[in-house]
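Renewal narrative, Specific Aim 1. Our central claim is that a sequence can be written position by position from structural information alone. The example that follows is taken directly from our test logs and has not been curated for this report. It begins with the structure tokens describing the chain, in the order in which they were read.
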């Protein structure tokens, strides 16, 4: 009977079953072909399709996918160019760095085999591997390394190389980095700057930008970038390290909602997810929670600007202190973030340059004490409108956060609700970063940091970086903090620098230029068959830090 041939692509047992059904029905109607075609056959197709699709949909995918489809984070606005900042907060993936960090965050060689500090701690000498090639087959040499660092000095970049005078190739496989001043944290740059090929980067013009078609020495090669949609990549045949198990990857971009829809429809093998989706069970997926140094807090404008009314409120030390007694950090962790976070007290909790949280007794919410502090500072509700005021200034201000980030939005709304209990009015606003940048020197921002490097303490708190980019956006200045940080940077060794970092932190705690809220865990949904190995402690969530151990990822089902 020819009708059953349409089912020949289905599994043999299922085909045999339906063939028997068709033949039996055909016999029952005594071979009446017209009745079979116009009545019974459409009915069979409908039942068969419903049964078959439901059967296949319920079966988890166990076969290793030819292409691993992932959603790792945001799309880099300036492309995949390390000179412009790609890979600073994570693995550059298409490029290699001189050093990288192991599971304990210690430095190990990547392109570098040796590194030493000489010349009164003003020169780093780095020896390179001699067997590394870029993805176009050309050798990676000291010329490329020196070019990369010198190029950052010459153009706008998110990397801070202010301590670098110049990088100089000494031999084909050794480079000298000459510093203008001692900087104990300069070594950290070696793990955050991917190396670009000089001969390719210099070819840039109006028709070719390196960040759109990068050539590098990392484990993968970018093959296609459809902006605002996805990038595809394949293994770099010239990669010198351990080869990852997946020959092709597609990284898709989109909102939190769109990524979760793609997970629910099994279009993705792996995706980063916000805390609000953490407890939603998806068949065929498991949740990975990765420890981080990624924090969230409120950065306060520290000085009164007569042209910006809100700065009168934020510049008042009493207002900033009150938030220590208003905010229930543990409640936020437990109820708002479903336990996938910890209370935060510094820019780098439990790191040598941050605060040891074991030594901190968290302040309990105490509205009576908060009200007393405000009254002592001269704040009262003189016009009985529910909002405190002082010398004609109402305790009302905006709190900005990155639009589309549900964690920041939830935090901002929670802080607003808590502050309202003592008569402080907070207007929460979600904006894009370019709009936030225009207002952040005079408006509080719910921001995040978190790095493997102590240099972030310098950027966020030193007066040298006041109102510089997104770093010390509140304009915090304290000569004692500056002095302690400078002494740390100039210390003869890393261990010798630690007391100065701690000294700076103690003063920062008193001044409260930030109100730190939580350290968040990074959450990922991965198919049950996808083993992500042992991810390292991740920095702030710019970039794709999960790929730092991509060579450990493997498909466990056969």
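The sequence written for that structure reads:
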């Amino acid at each position: 009977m020819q009708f059953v041939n349409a089912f020949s692509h289905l599994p043999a047992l299922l085909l045999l079953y339906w063939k028997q059904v068709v033949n039996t029905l055909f016999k029952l109607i005594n071979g009446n072909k017209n009745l079979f075609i116009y009545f019974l056959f459409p009915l069979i197709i409908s039942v068969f399709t419903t049964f078959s699709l439901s059967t296949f949909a319920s079966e988890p995918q166990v076969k290793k996918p030819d292409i691993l489809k992932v959603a790792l984070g945001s799309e880099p606005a300036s492309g995949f160019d390390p000179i412009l900042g790609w890979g600073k907060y994570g693995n550059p993936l298409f490029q290699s760095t001189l050093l990288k960090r192991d599971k304990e965050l210690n430095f190990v060689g990547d392109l570098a085999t040796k590194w030493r500090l000489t010349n009164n701690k003003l020169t780093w000498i780095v020896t390179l591997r001699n067997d590394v090639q870029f993805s176009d087959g050309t050798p990676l040499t000291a010329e490329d390394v020196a070019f990369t660092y010198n190029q950052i000095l010459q153009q706008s970049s998110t990397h801070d190389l202010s301590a670098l005078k110049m990088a100089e190739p000494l031999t084909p496989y050794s480079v000298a980095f000459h510093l203008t001043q001692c900087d104990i944290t300069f070594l950290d740059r070696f793990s955050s700057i991917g190396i670009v090929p000089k001969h390719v980067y210099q070819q840039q013009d109006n028709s070719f930008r390196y960040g759109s078609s990068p050539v590098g020495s990392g484990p993968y090669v970018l093959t296609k970038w459809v902006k605002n949609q996805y990038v595809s990549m394949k293994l770099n045949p010239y990669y010198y390290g351990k080869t990852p198990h997946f020959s092709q990857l597609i990284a898709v971009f989109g909102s939190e909602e769109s990524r979760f829809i793609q997970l629910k429809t099994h279009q993705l093998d792996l995706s980063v997810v916000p805390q609000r989706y953490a407890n939603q069970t998806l068949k065929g997926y498991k949740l990975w929670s990765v420890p981080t140094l990624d924090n969230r807090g409120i950065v306060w404008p520290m000085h009164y600007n007569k042209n910006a009314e809100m700065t009168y409120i934020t510049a008042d030390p009493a207002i900033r202190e009150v938030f220590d007694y208003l905010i229930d950090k543990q409640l936020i962790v437990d109820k708002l973030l479903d336990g996938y976070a910890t209370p935060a007290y510094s820019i780098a909790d439990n790191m040598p340059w941050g605060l040891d949280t074991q030594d901190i007794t968290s302040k309990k919410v105490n509205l009576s004490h908060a009200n007393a502090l405000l009254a002592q500072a001269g704040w009262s509700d003189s016009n009985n409108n529910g909002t405190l005021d002082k010398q004609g200034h109402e305790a009302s201000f905006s709190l900005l956060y990155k639009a589309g980030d549900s964690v920041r939005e939830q935090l901002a709304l929670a802080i607003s609700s808590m502050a309202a209990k003592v008569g402080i009015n907070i207007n929460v606003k979600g904006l894009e970063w370019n709009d936030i940048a225009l207002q952040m020197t005079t408006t509080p921002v719910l921001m995040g940091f978190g790095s493997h490097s102590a240099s972030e303490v310098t950027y966020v708190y030193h007066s040298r970086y006041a109102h510089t980019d997104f770093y010390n956006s509140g304009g915090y200045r304290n000569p004692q903090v500056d002095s302690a940080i400078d002494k740390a940077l100039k210390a003869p060794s890393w261990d010798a620098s630690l007391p100065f970092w701690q000294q700076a932190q103690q003063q920062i705690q008193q001044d409260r230029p930030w109100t730190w809220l939580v350290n968040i865990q990074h959450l990922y949904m991965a198919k049950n068959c996808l083993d992500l190995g042992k991810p390292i402690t991740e920095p702030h969530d710019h970039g794709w830090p999960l790929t730092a151990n991509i060579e450990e990822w493997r498909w466990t089902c056969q």
